[in-house]
Amino acid sequence: MSRTAVPSLRGRIGCDARSGHYAVPHRYRLHLSLSCPLCLRIAITHSLLNLGGTLPVSLLPAVPDGPGGEYSSLRPLYEASSHQHPGPAAAPALSDGWTGRIVSTHTPEILRDLAERFGGAGPVLYPDHARNDIDAIGRLCEHEVNEAAQSAGRLGADSSEYGTALGTLLEALDSLERRLSDRDYVLGTELTAADVQLWVTLVQLDTVHRWHLDAAAVHRIAGHRRLWSYARRLAALPAFGAHLDLDGIARRHHARCRGREAAGAAVQIVDWTAAFRSGSVTSVLR
Hints:
Helices cover 45% and strands 6% of the residues. It is mainly α.
């Protein structure tokens, strides 16, 4: 294992007491920083499932206070769970109040356990018929949007490979634009986990990645009007928009990023604050 490959703590929430970890009100706690895209996905899912009275949340600062993205407040939990844990005490984390240890730091499994073990009062985020499609949208968001945008920003517009990375990003956005031409949500008429991931991906694209793209690229990205209208519509929902910490995202980005700012930084695609204010302003975590 490489020095940078830090193993996740990957316990699961089971069906009953025989599984060790099972769904009990107030037994578990989520530790989240809303400036982190993985944590933001979990916070939105927690809200959509109306888990505020069952599974408490501890909100962490936007910028970690230790090396490598560590939160010093989480270090005792990590040490109790994995002696001399190799790597930072990072968020997100799902902890068990009965044992004082971490159950999981693996976002995809935390999300599924929230929906399948604790859910019931909200939408069906992982319907059986859509599992493969949800996974496919996840891969597209991660590799063809996030990684492609990050690569383009890192390379800079003067690089011969910039156009390839930007082309991958734009093709992915084109496919999402087509999906939304005849439906309210990315997989059809019902909101699923794919919408949560896509929305957070779009937030990152506008609030983080565009800072390192040229203005022409950002204008082409903004030209996907259905996609950004969809992003605004979801931002108006409390489960989405109430958790947006725009200042925190900016501070986290600038604390970690050493890349050059480009002209696209001045071309905001969505007024996220206005989008949220057009809906409810009640947060379910605070």
